[in-house]
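Lab notebook page, bench 4
Experiment: in silico fold of construct C2
Operator: M.H.
Input chain length: 94 residues
Purpose: comparison with the prior construct
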Amino acid sequence: MRRNEHQSKRIKVQDEIRLRQLTVDEALFRLEQYLHDAFMAGLIQVIVIHGKGTGTLRRAIQKVLAEHPLVKSFRLGEYGEGGAGVTIVQLADK
């Protein structure tokens, strides 16, 4: 198993998802499935890579995260984590 993968009941989930260059609808669809899979795999923290661009994708993703039942908290990446191009997400406890 690679360093950034976790496995639980046959589900392999990386600790990051790349959503750059997708439409908002495509990105939100993938994000929803990813959050479920990451939670089921027992991940505590994940990284959502959305890029900087105009900020439209970042805002849409963070709006969903703010209301999502599996999300405990989230923040923009800091220096060395990807800055405004990523969102760091803390998942809720099982």
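Observations: The chain has a mean pLDDT of 90. Strands lie at 5-8, 11-14, 16-18, 45-49, 71-76, 86-91.
Next step: discuss at group meeting.
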